[in-house]
Amino acid sequence: MINQSEIDILRQASVPVGQHLIDGKKVDASDGAQMDVISPIDGTLLTKIAAGQGLDVDKAVLAARTAFEDGRWSGLAPAVRGKILQRIADQIANEAHSLAVLGVRDNGTEISMAIKGEPLSAAGTFRYYGELCDKQYGEIAPTAPGTLGLVHHTPVGVVGVIIPWNFPLMIGAWKIAAALAAGNTIVLKPAEVASLSILRLVDICHEAGLPDGVLNVVTGTGLDVGAALGRHMDVDVLAFTGSGPVGRQLLMYAAQSNLKRVYLELGGKSASVVFGDAGNLDQVAKVAAGAIFRNSGQVCVASSRLLVERSIHQDVVEKIVKIADEMTLGNPLDLSTNAGAIASKTQMNNILRDCDRAAADGADLKLGGVQRAVDTGGFYIGPTIFDNASQDSSLVQNEIFGPVLAIQPFDKEDEAVRLANGTNYGLSAGVFTQNISRAHRMIESLRAGVVHVNTYGGADVTVPLGGVGQSGNGHDKSPHAMDKYRNLKTAWVQL
Predict the structure, then answer these.
(1) In the annotation, is 69 catalytic?
(2) Residues in CB range of 346: below 8 A, 6 or more apart
(3) Three-class secondary structure of residue 424 per DSSP
(4) Structure confidence at residue 1 (pLDDT)
(5) Fold for domain 271-460?
(6) Which of 300, 309, 355, 399 is catalytic?
């Protein structure tokens, strides 16, 4: 486990200017443009990265297409591909501490969470898909005598990957490792406010033996690089994690170009439902606090709504306010911190605006709602709790993506289901009850891709993550994730 003295050394390391990686070569943007990388910890300039344009994307896609067509990756035996992915996993694990500190300097996640949630998670994901490479089978159809029907799983070709800033290594690994395991080549766009750890990951992939051109990265803005990937006529599949408005735009780009398949893991407004028979309310409050306030609420599956049966409502509110108020907010590179920074000034200001709107809509502010640690120059908002939120309010209906919890009381089970399902989202949900029958009824009734029972979070790479409604389509993690990156090819043979 990392210690504070090691962190203090790593946090002083110089950070090189970030460049694209195209066909195995580090290159500047085609016009030489760069973007500032501002650390959310103290608002200072950390480094610069290349500000890519459409021409850079064209070069990267050409490199990826060439690498796919000549078979330098797809033509390898699956077991050979798997060994390379496992070598990548080993090297990520070896560099876990430096990768975690670099990522925290870039996006503000508290270091105690970043170690496990970023490099160690990414290493586990690469190892999982490395082991899965040679364990995928085709199918033989139940045909009539004299014919043979075979179903082959073939790679789609060039995959465009766009990842967010909250967990770039973890989410990047979900997409990169699965797409590579299926035999594809990739053009990757990291988030402009969190590219640094991903750039190092791409270096690690090549150092472990990934052939040139198989994994290319172009940094820059969504308006430039993201749009160019979305519109590109030679990208076969686009995999994206991020906001709903951007997801809609990517679908439009696909329709305007080559009708590429687009898989979207979008936002959520996930609800946890706490029944009067939940048992130990101290433990429930602790779990509920972690479900929204870890990484300052910047988690796709964050449980930003808490529905509490009226008989225990006041008790639960008091407990969770106390827990949240005692959380240590501060520099995310200090091990004592359990509430870190907001990833950017823009995001911080958006959250503060949403808090002001919630108060104006009549929700009861119990804690927070203001900028903190202003003197650091960084971007900090403490845990924020609103009680008695109205179902039709912006606070309940819209994703804030920050450390803001909306609490609502309910009386009956069917009312809890109606409230929980009463948004356009459907990514995750939670249920707290000691009644096994009720737990299974809720699992069946809640409209969500993941339902947690008497816990929240912690689901590993062995199970899929995906949403319903406006939380997106397709799945990351588990063998099912590879379905996004494969075509089915039928062979019909007359014997």
Answers:
(1) no
(2) none
(3) coil
(4) 83
(5) Aldehyde Dehydrogenase; Chain A, domain 2 (3.40.309)
(6) 300
